[in-house]
Amino acid sequence: MTKKLYIKTYGCQMNVYDTERMIDVMAPEGYTQTDAPDDADLIVLNTCHIREKAVEKVYSDIGRVRKIKIKQSKNDKEVILAIGGCVAQAEGGEIMRRAPVVDMVFGPQTYHNLPKMVNKSISLKAIGEKSRILDTSLAVDEKFNQLSKSDVKRKATAFLTIQEGCDKFCTFCVVPYTRGSEFSRSIESVMKDAHKLADAGVVEVTLLGQNVNAFHGQSSTGQEWGLPELMAEIAKIEGIERIRYTTSHPHDMTDQLIKAHGQIKECMPYLHLPVQAGSDKVLKAMNRTHDTASYKKIIADLRKIRPDLALSGDFIVGFPGETDQDFEETMNLVREVRYAQAYSFKYSPRPGTPAATMENQVDEAIKSQRLTRLQELLKQQQIEFNKSVIGKTLKILIENKGKTEDTAFGRSPYMQAVQVTLQGVSADDLQGTIVDVLIKDAGPFNIQGVLVAAA
Ligand code: SAH
Ligand code: SF4
Ligand code: F3S
Predict the structure, then answer these.
(1) Site to substitute for ligand 2 among 48, 89, 168, 290, most atoms within 8 A of C-beta
(2) Greater confidence, 279 or 125?
(3) 89 C-alpha to center of ligand 1: Å?
(4) Burial 88-116 (b: 16+ CB within 10 A, else e)
């Protein structure tokens, strides 16, 4: 009998990737995915711990699932609620205490065991046993060995995790605690997965890692490889026409990697390179290991090689001790560097991180004011960047149908979301192909154009 699995994903692309793998590992157990939590036999919340708000959402969603479970138990249906991801890793014990409705808790490194955990939970329930399951070990090796076995669904673009965890310990960040220390998958296993994606028709791969540019490994001929060499190898695979990678740290932005943006034509002219702040004092307190000068040098070097590079970033405002002057330095950095798009956040104190107990915490109202100003500036730059491509013909990878019959959704080389008017061609026929699109209009969040020709 088929069973229904509902997974809600919070947080970053690593979690999106993990969710896809959970669906893969549950498929042989007879579980198919549903978008309706009310129909599900198994509900998984794949959680994020990065900011306080993300965690609050999880607890309120647990409350919602509790109601579903009560309703279903009246129909004699036992729904299993599993909490995975980074909140599970960071505060699994507390979830168990606060939410008795939760049947199991597992961290980001143990979800390959999900079938075992689910079956165990079902048998425990069958004998009326109330005990629950907690698995938050941080050993990564075994997970990837298990996961590589699953099949790939056909789609235009796919994530491929090559690196996990982080040893950087920025003073604001929970990732080193929730994902564990830095770990690179073996080149052999990454290449195997990359071939599998290409065989399934994937045209674009996004290489993922919390510190993806710290990736390193040994090639089959015994050479020490980093991300640029890995990208060059993936670029050779027939069918792979686009490569992206995220998220990078300025510390690991080597000359070789910068050069790769000019040498590997599959490497797309888009880079997400978080700087976090524009004040050297704040960067130091954040333990970022780069300063504004070294960051600007990287950007200048990249733009020498790829003048059209679209730059993205992350910013935190209101880090402890950030003065008005420090914040103005962030604004000035943004004005100088110019971003195609960016994410910005109010500093959120996270339990167990050094910054949470620093003195000089910034007032919430000041954080909000600063965030509003920064976001206005970033939005303006985003619109400017999007408008700069009006009148150009860009190569667009068609991912899906559009909102209307006559349109398709795709992405430009610069990661812009593009609405393409098809003029009679069917979106289904174009899915997974790269086409020429003349850009006619642009807004803050997407650009619009008309199909010129299949490239
Ligand atoms: N590994 C990536 C990003 C990981 S988290 C990197 O090093 O850049 C994604 C973003 O969340 C961070 O870049 C940062 O801007 C933001 N972030 C992390 N911890 C935060 C906190 N405590 N409060 C506010 N924003 C935070
Ligand atoms: Fe967090 Fe810093 Fe590691 Fe990024 S580099 S994951 S911000 S500790
Ligand atoms: Fe969140 Fe974990 Fe990603 S804390 S941002 S889901 S690594």
Answers:
(1) 168
(2) 279
(3) 17
(4) bbbbbeebbeebeebbbbbbbbbbbbbbe
Quote the ligand 2 centre to 109 CA distance (angstroms).
18
Same fold, 152-264 and 269-388: yes
Rounded to whole angstroms, the Cα distance separating 114 from 87 reads 17
How many angstroms is it from 304 CA to the middle of ligand 3?
A: 33
- CATH class, domain 269-388, is alpha beta
User: How does DSSP assign 46-100, residue by residue?
Assistant: EE--SSHHHHHHHHHHHHHHHHHHHHHHHTT---EEEEEHHHHHHHHHHHHHH-T
The pLDDT score that the predictor gives to residue 138 is 78
What tens digit of pLDDT does each residue of 149-202 get?
555 556 899 999 999 999 999 999 999 999 999 999 999 999 999 999 999 999
- Which H/E stretch holds residue 451? strand 446-454
Ligand 3 binding pocket includes 173 (Cβ within 6 Å): no
CA distance 289 to 215: 18
Give the class (CATH, top level) of 152-264.
alpha beta
Give the C-alpha distances (Å, rounded to integers) separating 95 from 83, 84, 105.
9, 11, 8
Per-domain boundaries in the chain: 3-140, 152-264, 269-388, 393-454
pLDDT in tens, 366-409: 999 999 999 999 999 999 999 999 999 999 999 999 999 899 99
**Among protein residues, the one whose CA lies closest to atom 3 of ligand 3:** 12
State mean pLDDT over 348-353.
Answer: 96
Are 291 and 318 within 8 A, CB to CB? no
Two tokens, residue 407? 């349109």
**Stretch (H or E) spanning 14:** helix 13-26
**Dist. CA 445 → ligand 2 center (Å):** 26
Closest ligand 1 atom to residue 314 Cα is 15
Annotation: CATH topology of 393-454: OB fold (Dihydrolipoamide Acetyltransferase, E2P) (2.40.50)
Q: Which two tokens stand for residue 424?
A: 């009679």
CATH number assigned to the domain covering 3-140: 3.40.50.12160
Report the atom number in ligand 1 closest to the C-alpha of 349.
22
The answer to whether 218 and 224 are in contact (CB under 8 A) is yes
Interval 274-315: pLDDT, tens: 999 999 999 999 999 999 999 999 999 999 999 999 999 999
Tell me the whole-structure pTM to 2 decimals: 0.94
